[in-house]
Amino acid sequence: MHRSAAVIVAFLSVALICSAAAKNATSIYVPLPPSNPFKNAKEEKQQKSEPASFLFAEKRLPSLGRAMAIGYYPRGCLQGGVELPMTGPTWQVMRVSRIRNWGHPDLVKFLERFAPLAAKATGWRGILVGDMAQPRGGPLPFGHKSHQIGLDVDIWFMPMPDRVLSKEERDNIAASNLVTADGKHINHENWSSADVAFIRTAAEQSDVERVLVNAAIKKELCRVEGESDKSWMSKVRPWYGHADHIHVRLKCPADSPDCRAQPAVPPGDGCDKSLNYWFANWILRLKIPEMSGSAKGLMLKDLPPACGAVLNAPANPSSAEADKRFEAR
User: Fold this and answer.
1) What is the DSSP letter of 186?
2) CB 3.0-4.6 Å disulfide test: which of 197, 265, 274, 296 passes with 121?
3) What is the mean pLDDT of residues 193-215?
4) 104 contacts 248 by C-beta, under 8 angstroms
5) Torsion region of 39: left, alpha or beta (phi above 0 gives left; psi -120 to 50 gives alpha)
6) What pLDDT score was predicted for residue 188?
7) 85 CB burial (10 A radius; 0-12, 13-18, 19+)
8) What is the pLDDT of residue 227?
9) Residue 18, SS3?
10) Are strands 82-83 and 102-103 parallel, antiparallel or unpaired?
């Protein structure tokens, strides 16, 4: 009997405690998990330490993992990047010491396909490839705001020579400038019909999102194309600089769900009054130095959360040969 009474007392005590807790539930603070928890202390420290451009520039090899473009062209990173060989049948990579001949596999395949097409269209031996992306993408310490997700590439307005250039030549040769010093006209000493064919061949590729050129080059294209079929011209957009190269940007790949697509180009060929904006005096006076480091202010916290994992992932062992090639440069 005493045992039964004890059980009843214990039961009533628990019930009273639960009832009291229920009445005071609103006063109990239960902390919520952070919206973007870091996987480890290393990532948390990186969020507040050096700019992301320095962190990504230190990585000379791509990360493990399926290839994916992550984020937006000027704010993201690249998982599982692929290297474009320094020299191919119809291309040579320039500025090799920068280690920027990496990209999403779609970009590498594009260049392998585009190089012979451009050579045929222009009569050149091949193309000279400028900056693509770093092995893991991300912000660059100098030179570009975009080129972060492995889908951008600069290609020079200069035919590939009939010999393999040395490392010193690749790092020091200057590309041909096709625009006059005042920024208003084409430099006819360097400009030719091959340059039109070069730009058009790039813009006609179905996986190309944009082809960025200097405004004076866009104006000349509008003039020389006249009333011919200019459907490809909608992709060719004016942008600061770009007097000595085209900037080709690919569409987001199907295998990259975290890649943010660029808004569609405006309707029309871009040869209307909107082009006049680029020839205003205050625009022409702007100086965009190559070593401006326009993305160097971004911190790791400013990039998509997945970029922290990409930055700290193990290197892809199949890319070890690339590291040896870099050491030999």
Assistant:
1) B
2) 197
3) 97
4) no
5) alpha
6) 93
7) middle
8) 66
9) helix
10) antiparallel
For residue 294, the SS3 value is coil
Q: Can you list the positions of beta strands (E) in the chain? A: 68-72, 75-79, 82-83, 87-88, 91-93, 102-103, 127-129, 152-156, 208-213, 236-238, 245-250
As a whole number of angstroms, the distance between CA 233 and CA 210 comes to 10
Average pLDDT along the chain: 85
**Cα(171)–Cα(329) distance, rounded to whole angstroms?**
11
CATH of 53-262+276-328, one of 1.10.240.10, 3.30.360.10, 3.40.190.10, 3.30.1380.10: 3.30.1380.10
- Cα separation, 32 vs 27, in Å, equals 15
Q: Specify the pLDDT at position 17.
A: 41
Which residues, in sequence order, are CB contacts of 89 under 8 Å at separation 6+?
A: 115, 116, 126
- Helix, strand or coil for residue 262? coil
Q: pTM of the entire structure? A: 0.82
For the chain, what are the domain ranges?
53-262+276-328
183 φ/ψ sector (left φ>0, alpha ψ -120 to 50, else beta):
left
CA distance 186 to 178: 6
Residue with the two structure tokens 């006049």: 276
Segment 219-244, tens digit of pLDDT: 999 998 866 667 899 999 999 889 99
Task: Give the DSSP H/E element, type plus range, for residue 200.
Answer: helix 193-203
| N-to-C CA span, the chain | 91
Determine the Cα–Cα distance for residues 171 and 142; give it in Å rounded to an integer: 15
What DSSP state is assigned to residue 102? E
d(CA 137, CA 53): 9
CA distance 66 to 248: 23
Higher pLDDT, 242 or 28: 242
